[in-house]
Amino acid sequence: MSKLYVVGIGPGNNENMTLRAQNALRESDVIVGYTVYVDLVREQYPEKEYLTTPMRHETERVALALSQAANGKTVSIVCSGDAGVYGMSGVAYEMSSDYPDVEIETIPGISAVLSGAAILGAPLMHDFAVISLSDLLTPWEKIEKRLQFAAQADFVICLYNPSSRKRGDYLEKACDLILRYASPDTVCGIARNIGREGETTEILSLGELRKTQVDMFSTVFIGNSQTKTIGGKMVTPRGYKYE
Amino acid sequence: MSKLYVVGIGPGNNENMTLRAQNALRESDVIVGYTVYVDLVREQYPEKEYLTTPMRHETERVALALSQAANGKTVSIVCSGDAGVYGMSGVAYEMSSDYPDVEIETIPGISAVLSGAAILGAPLMHDFAVISLSDLLTPWEKIEKRLQFAAQADFVICLYNPSSRKRGDYLEKACDLILRYASPDTVCGIARNIGREGETTEILSLGELRKTQVDMFSTVFIGNSQTKTIGGKMVTPRGYKYE
Asked: How many CB pairs under 8 A join A and B?
């Protein structure tokens, strides 16, 4: 059996990687990934063999990694954030049936829902939903339905892929659907370039968020009905009593 | 300004801690936490001052940490999993207004939703909701409402605190509510003792999950309508086309 690690490397900087992720990369002969993420680890492990594929070539990337592993090499596929949240691990399992001699191990990493929450404050003290606004692989009607149920459930909502060049008005559309059930004063947050140069946070109301342009390096948080700001931080109370 | 780190140490073993979490602990004079989690880090950093409080004494724990930091010490509060998912960071911000000279920094960690998903396979390839079944701080009616909206949204659902001695039938109740909208054949998973001795996984149907007893060291995953099993793993397809 040879090994394929699907490794979540966390947000941008190496500090947010787990020891286990680092050990897997150290142990690997070949490291496969999207160019930008591979460059993040190449500095640390310059002696490895690197194979890169462009953005969105996910199945090609996994096929490359599986065939390298089938040839007896220890291989890591690197994913930004977590390997299992809209990541490569699902594709790896789906394509693995043709490679019975490759054992897949998923190594979790800090996904943007956790790293973004940490720099914004403490928005996830209560039940939450994570929804991607990308309709590349999901019909927009399904996304609309999920946004509305999440708002009715009074979940804290974390939005991945809130915008792209082709989907400039998707965040506005999403806010409008949530506004059917939530107050325009709902506390929201934007985390930009998490763990990288240019990391910033912004706290604003849902009404303001609706009119805000974000880029593809942003993660958006929409509070629940109890979320508030404390000293510039976004905080969802858990319900403890204070004397 | 003195520093209070709220540190997510991930599941049980040190391997799942980030470098950043380790640096914070190394830098700290005092480490505060629930006895069980403090014991996990004490071996690694025996020279620190340790202060422990029993389970559920969260506000007491945070007050202890804030007062130590106010006295000029660098302090870490350790949380299992992530510091921000039902964690201590919210309480820290809520109690911080009395300690203007203490700067709080939240260091994210691998929460059970990510570590559990990784050992079960790839359940989180699509939109998901995280719901705690503990009604200690949340009215059960609110939890019931959220479960039903999450099921209607066809989210993958991750349940924290699925059971305890006093709440032996809560998982059964939750499954019954989800079964109003989801098939009894829905693929589910249980991750037990993640990252610790006795780590196990179990894949079963929603109909079977309903009749299953889990303990407080379990995290439960309920697939969406597309979730399937591949080679004994729980996998939610993302929607890629395979030639």
From this structure: 231
- Compare all CA atoms of chain A with the CA of B139 and give the residue at the minimum distance: A239
DSSP symbols for B106-170 = EE----HHHHHHHHHEETTSS-EEEEE---SSS-HHHHHHHHHHHHHTT-EEEEES---GGGTTH
Chain B residue with Cα closest to A144: B153
Euclidean distance between CA atoms B125 and A98, whole angstroms:
21
Phi/psi of residue B216, nearest 5 degrees: -75, -5
Interface contact flag, A122 B239, Cβ < 8 Å: no
Give the one of B93, B107, B239 whose C-beta lies nearest to A233's C-beta.
B93
The CA–CA distances, whole Å, from A113 to A116, A158, B128, B198, B232 equal 5, 6, 12, 28, 28
Distances (CA, A) of B112 to A91, A205, B157: 22, 30, 13
Q: Which two tokens stand for residue B117?
A: 């998903």
Of A19, A90, A145, the CB nearest to B237: A90
Tokens standing for B158? 């991750």
Min Cα–Cα distance to chain A from B220, Å: 14
Largest CA distance in chain B: 64
> Could you report the predicted ipTM of this complex, rounded to two decimals?
0.96
CA B145 – CA B135 distance, rounded (Å) = 13
Which residues neighbour B80 within 8 Å (Cβ) at sequence distance 6 or greater?
A: B8, B9, B10, B11, B12, B36, B37
Q: What is the full DSSP assignment across A178-235? A: HHTTS-TT-EEEEEESTTSTT-EEEEEEHHHHTT----TTEEEEE--TT-EEETTEEE
pTM, entire model: 0.97
Tens digits of pLDDT across chain B (243 residues): 899 999 999 998 789 999 999 999 999 999 999 988 888 899 899 999 999 987 778 899 999 999 999 999 999 999 999 999 999 999 999 999 999 999 999 999 999 999 999 999 999 999 999 999 999 889 999 999 999 999 999 999 999 999 877 888 999 999 999 999 999 999 999 999 999 999 999 999 999 999 999 998 999 999 999 999 999 999 999 877 654
Residue A59 with chain B: CB contacts under 8 Å: 240-242
Decide if B86 and A126 are in contact by the 8 Å CB cutoff.
Answer: yes
Question: Are A91 and B238 a contacting pair at CB < 8 A?
Answer: yes
